[in-house]
């Protein structure tokens, strides 16, 4: 590139006959484009080839016996270097200890990425990422796929800036464990313990932490922020940022239950809640809130991933529209209590909060997010609210990045 630029600007250029100059320039530019395409294609092919092999070998990595000894949260059980890491970075799949909402020691999985090259003397700030809904089954974990990094929105920007990035799968995904879907404390612990796991590796991770999540991941990040000071006091949380977060769970389920996406999300949630809370909570079973058809369908839906099995989810969910619930989970106990306990924001976020919301979002409705922001400001939190016009649920996190990254620097959440 530098050589081409030099040639085109050099004093030798007039030696090319004028009638041939455009032909020569076109030839040079065509060669440059071909080279760029070849390099880009090689990079993509390298990552896909490596990711395909890693996906094939992944089941052995996640295998557990159920007899592993308890260990402090964040303790790493095993790691595996990933050759599919984005160019300019290094990455590992990790299996580590965490804690669920009932206080049990559990194993969960995720990935850790760091920029290539030595870390600064003070180490690198950690970004702990909470991914949006992908499903609840083990094979729906982001770290299992051909590209275990594809859902980490802003990954390239964070690595280029110098952050260490960690991404938890959440309990029950990847490694076997209790369900965690929209169970705030479990998800939040998983994000905090992923950061702890990174500090156990030789990747230059400091004790400085930023939380960042989208949709379900926003829910996880908010819970992690609420509990960080008591659950992981050795970590220095600087900021929490969320895009279209799941906040008012009762409102979320009621507003979306009339379509396939709402039934899918509710199925994942009811499956998790009945599994985790059912054994100890009277009436927290599927039959107590769902129609017979709904209760029968939930286990099958919980085995399907949102990506790659969307057609199957639609096939099951479509006949259930209007025929799923027998009661209102927002008013019928124990569901009302469980949803309230797993709704974030009952206390002010202890660090600066960035919230992005697409104004065309039909899944997480803007009114719900606005109500959450208003509540946080009333409680005394420092909040920046980025309302993004003509933006739906899927694009909001990416469109928030140009404002998010400078904001992190401004509140002390920079990479160093």
UniProtKB/TrEMBL annotation:
PANTHER family: LIPASE 5 (PTHR34853:SF1), PTHR34853. GO terms for biological process: lipid catabolic process. This is Alpha/beta fold hydrolase. Pfam families: LIP (PF03583). Keywords: Hydrolase, Membrane, Transmembrane, Transmembrane helix. It comes from Orlajensenia leifsoniae. The chain crosses the membrane at residues 24-44. InterPro entries: AB_hydrolase_fold, Lipase_secreted. GO terms for molecular function: triacylglycerol lipase activity. The keyword Magnesium does not apply.
